[in-house]
Structures are given as structure tokens and as C-alpha cells.
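ok so I'm stuck.
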Amino acid sequence: MNYLIGFIFVVLVAIILRQRHQFGKMRQSARFMSYYAKLNENAKLHAKFQANTAEMLLRMQGYDIERIINGDNSQRFISDIEKQSFLKEHDLNKKKLDEADKVFEQVKIKYESEVMQ
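replied:
not stuck anymore, here's the structure
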């Protein structure tokens, strides 16, 4: 009878250790997914900012994307006030991108510290 109780105890300890290992792997994969989700979000913001910058430069020169798509390459006059509004919009987007980069750096540092454990 003691052998049976001992065997059951060993099996229960093995099950507990296996579950602890599985939960550790699950936490690690959750950290991994969280980090790469933030990485992809940051890459998306950078791509969008780059596209908006190119579009803004075209608009500042008097070109319109919709007209270029339709084959009309004519320019229109852009006033200084419109150019300044484009620049303000660009600066605002740049600040948002910088804030997103700071958040990503914090997430990156946290991820690297957790991975090194």
C-alpha cells in the first residue's frame, strides 16, 4: 500500500512540474507575441509616416495624388499658408511617431530583460 501511495505522489509531483514548465512556456510565448505585435505596430506607423511625407512633399509642390493617378500632371499654386499647414501637420505626425518610438523602446527593454532571465 505504501508503494502505491508513493507512486501516486511521484506521479502528482511529475504532473505539477510539467504544468509549471508548460505555464512558463506559455508566459514566454505571450511576451514574444506582445513584443512582436508592438514591433509590427511601430513598423506600420513608420511606413504610414513615410508615405504621408512623400504625399506632403508632392502637395507642397502643387501636385495632387488623385490627379496624378488619373494622368493629370499639372501643378497648382500653393500659398505659403497652405505650406505652413502641411508642415504643422507633418510636425504633429512626427511628434506622434516619436512618442510611439519611445513606447516601443520601453517595450523592447522590458522584453529583452525578461528574455535574459
